[in-house]
Amino acid sequence: MLIKREKLRELSESIGISQLGITTAEPLVHMQNRLQRRIDEGRVTPFEEKDPALRLSPEQILPGCCSIIVLVVPYMLKDCFMPASEGGPRGLIARCARGIDYHTIVEQKAGQIVALIRSETGLSFNYRILSDRSPLLERELARCAGLGWIGENCTLVNSRYGSFTALGTILVNLEIEVDKPIDGSCRHCRLCLEACPTGALKEPNILDPRLCLSYLNQAAGIFPRDMRRFMENRIYGCDRCQEVCPHNQAVDYSPFSEFSFPLFPAEPLLIPLLTMTRKEFDQTIGLTAAGWRGKTILQRNAVIALGNSVDQAAVRPLSRLLENDPRPLIRLHSAWALGRIGGVKARYAIEKSRHNDPEAAVKEEALIALEFSK
User: Fold this and answer.
1) Which residues, including other chains, have CB under 8 Å from residue 345's CB and lie 6 or more apart?
2) DSSP secondary structure string for all residues of 97-124
3) 12 — pLDDT class (breaks 50, 70, 90)
4) What are the residue ranges spanned by the domains of the chain?
């Protein structure tokens, strides 16, 4: 039984999904050379599947897979920024992490689509729902399903919602009428390449994650010292290459009210983030797409942002962290931040740390901080 794609779209629109496409489950052999180049050049992050076969073959994810349903969930909302002078230094959160975790919405909508197909056809079938954490090349599957094209900043550009979207895939062992890729393309304006703060976009469609702030501020461990200034006030993610894209200048806002409640404000106050409790985290940030990264890494990023603010109001809370926080990672970055801000009180706190901290790495960071602090 061949399921008509128009009927499937009708079902998806009944639950608010207007952008849905279908592609085959054939291996993405045309992507093999590009994927191998990324591997050879060391541009694969620890977050990605290491086995190329799993990235290219849906059959290995769901045996007997015949078709792939791809859905687009937009998360773009109107910006609501606070005055820069109100309340102290503020951070910046990428749009994908301001409301409820988009994985929750994608998986919920995909589950509803599966239920609707079963109800409509009466068929019993195997399926698997994947979102973001999928080993498959989701954006390429979306392109093959006619949902957009791959921009020079490596994002999927949808004609209605631009690139501020989350993707979900439903692998099924059903035959579904497939869509064709569309003809859209970038304007080759190079605005995204020129706007990237670190030059992570080496050339069109070539992204080096080792320089990408969005990757770096999600990576665990010590944030590379020579990259910290580029972070500016970012706490999670980076939207810069998307903000300058002409295709994102007149897009529709998300119809999903779930994203409209700011669990993680666009510009959160930085100093309160330093003392956020586990309960406060779990009830707010923990419910967003940034929650998976955990409190410590986001606090590390807040410390870096405070250093970049060069605001003397941050010296006292950073000094407390440097002296008392049990986490070496937080103390290390606090030493750097205090050195970045400078001043007599900051230098005093760094000097104490250089002599008293039990961790050699923190002492080393304190010594370096003293060298460039004023």
Assistant:
1) 315, 316, 319
2) GSSS-HHHHHHHHHHHHHHHHHHHH---
3) very high
4) 2-76+97-176, 269-374
Q: What is the per-residue pLDDT across 260-290, written as a single tens digit (0 to 9) for each? A: 888 999 999 999 999 999 999 999 999 999 9
Q: Which two tokens stand for residue 156?
A: 């999927």
Question: What is the Cα–Cα distance from 161 to 101, expressed in whole angstroms?
Answer: 18
Please name the residues in contact with 183: beta carbons below 8 A apart, sequence gap of 6 or more: none
216 vs 96, 212, 284, 305, CA distance in Å? 16, 6, 23, 14
Question: Residue 245: what residue type?
Answer: C
User: pLDDT tens digits, residue range 143-159?
Assistant: 999 999 999 999 999 99
Beta strands, E only, 65-164: 67-74, 92-93, 127-130, 149-150, 156-157
Distance CA 15, CA 240 (A): 31
| Burial status of residue 32 (CB atoms within 10 A of its CB: 0-12, 13-18, 19 or more) | middle
Over 60: is that where the pLDDT of 55 sits?
A: yes
327-352: pLDDT as tens digits: 999 999 999 999 999 999 999 999 99
Per-residue pLDDT at 183: 85
Among 266, 214, 210, smallest CA distance to 238 is for 214
Of residues 329, 322, 315, the one with CA closest to residue 357: 322
For 269-374, give the CATH class. mainly alpha
Residues 170 and 114 sit within 8 Å (Cβ to Cβ): yes
Pick the catalytic residue: 40, 51, 101, 132? 132
- Residue 305: its H or E element: helix 295-309
pLDDT at 260: 85
Number of H helices, E strands in the chain: 16, 12
Per the annotation, the verdict on 282 as an active-site residue is no
What whole-number distance in Å separates Cα of residue 29 and Cα of residue 264?
A: 40
Token pair 């998300």 is at which residue?
254
Residue 86 has pLDDT above 80, yes or no: no
